[in-house]
């Protein structure tokens, strides 16, 4: 089968679609990739891709300013080119935005996995994992799954462990990287540590002074070559780093293409980074990392898809913070994690080959590892597995995996850690209300089909349930799923009742876990 995988998002997300591409190709499919033109260089790093089709987004926007008909022609020409050369039997669309849905529909009609539109123009997802991918993007703090695994499931694969192996840098990129390192002259005994100082927003950047203090401590105790990577816009951060750190430093910010950046990262012994695309580049090349997850960033969904990496987030009750409100604490999380503690963890890793369990002042420390089903998971190194958020994420991993796979709920193989009593009672009351409301909605759905006067009551109950879940710090993702499925084309009464019962089984599974 010829498949076009469509990912019209940014650098990191594009790289994280690699395991889905590899599984599709391993099943005997020929996989092409449609991506934004400005990330075509990153697309060239993906293995198992037969051809890359870059969408000229800049040309589209320029045409849109002049004449919408020219913009439409640009997109139509692109779609025609993809259709003629790739001859897709199926499109796997991992981008939820309306233009991406339209493009997928234009390319392959109804033969779309992931995000699309139905024949009447309603939003449609091929499976509930795709719906979850979009729903969880607004409440990232509640997402218990690594986005790579969600991509895999949305693409219709994801059985067993994912394989995240990017294409190795070609000879030209490797030679260019070697030339950049030649002047630095690190010996074989010197640990080469990469530092990615920037992030998508300043609120998600660990202060440069802390990166520099970490580098100084590592150089003092072990001797390192610091390699600063990043975009040209991050040059001021690199300059500040060099002002503070007086050890050997190779500043490559703004000095590499994406292929050369991959070759540089492949030469690192370790990457220390904020939550960025460079993190996922390192993971796909098998390079271990230490990552700082600050502000809205959290490691459970965008952590590295590589076992044995250290993920650090501030040990603060407000972390991760919401996308929907300004920080009331002046971004205090930026200064929460102690660089001395990070240095000691790295030194232990150098000595023993693993990051140690113990106290990480100011941080929750997690080690990336796989769970029994092959999904990427996190194991606490700092004793935070008993906190309410961690316990609830663990419960969600169990229940939502079955709910999204549409399989009957089964109890966990071994008991999960309990929520603290206050949180357990609060959530138990919420779930009891939810189960009662779902029974009411199910009964009203049947009556509404026979009696139009009942429709208002049915809709009121339907919306009441959505409001109940939306207001909860535990079930807001279910609310998003519930509301998004309501935006699809209306299903028949049997389909609607089946959907309501599916949510009822999910709520009952959560309640059963709380009862122990």
From TrEMBL:
CDD domains: GT9_LPS_heptosyltransferase. One of its GO terms (biological process) is lipopolysaccharide core region biosynthetic process. Pfam families: Glyco_transf_9 (PF01075). One of its GO terms (molecular function) is ADP-heptose-lipopolysaccharide heptosyltransferase activity. It comes from the Bacteria. GO terms for cellular component: cytosol. Keywords: Glycosyltransferase, Transferase. This is Glycosyltransferase family 9 protein.
